[in-house]
Amino acid sequence: FGSSGRASDPVRSRSPVRRRRAPRGNMGRMYGKGKGMASSALPYRRKPPAWVKMKPDDVTDHICKLAKKGLTPSQIGVTLRDSFGIPQVGTVTGSKILRILKTNGLAPTLPEDLYYLIKKAVSMRKHLDKNRKDKDSKFRLILVESRIHRLARYYKRVKSLPATWKYVSATASALVA
């Protein structure tokens, strides 16, 4: 038998170690390690909850006021949720925040996601001017700028951006300022 008693055990010596694999259905992130499927789930009912007492016109007025203060559509949604108790603007008013802003002529010139990507790229370039040897940051900047180009291509296709719009890193800081 020996000291451990396992050497002559026929079952253990032949069976390989089996490890469980992750399910293959999950597609990974484009720029990142995550394979998560987490996302928020909206309620099935498309009507506002009974406890929401605000009228659609009041909500629209609040949205316009907040936009005039300089808030982005997502910041407006967070403010309405936290301060006024409106869970989903779409259920109360029948249209989304950005559509309400467009009808009132208050929509931002750049789409919000593109704006924040450009802002990130500008801050990364600023960092690279000071730290020229930061190779990882340079690589990440390439990834961010490729996302900018891809998003710009999409927004040109759906006519949210003019066809002549182009991202130029030298003039990007003026877009964000």
Question: Would you write up a description of this structure?
Answer:
The chain has 177 residues and is mostly helical. Helix content is 51%, strand content 0%. It is built from eight helices and no strands. It has helices at residues 10-14, 56-69, 73-84, 89-93, 97-103, 112-130, 135-157, 172-176. Helix 2 packs across helix 3 and helix 6 (112-130) runs antiparallel to helix 7 (135-157). The protein is globular and about 55 Å long. The model has no long low-confidence stretch (mean pLDDT 87).
Structure characteristics:
single chain, 177 residues, mainly alpha, 8 helices
Sum this structure up briefly.
This protein has 177 residues and is an all-alpha fold. It is built from eight helices and no strands.
Global structural class: mainly alpha
Secondary-structure element string: HHHHHHHH
Whole-angstrom Rg: 26 Å
Shape assignment: globular
Helix content: 40-55%
Note the main sheet.
Answer: none
Report the β-strand fraction as a percent range: under 5%
Work out the helix count.
Answer: 8
Mean pLDDT: 87
Roughly how many Å apart are the termini?
77 Å
How many extended strands? 0
Low-pLDDT parts are none
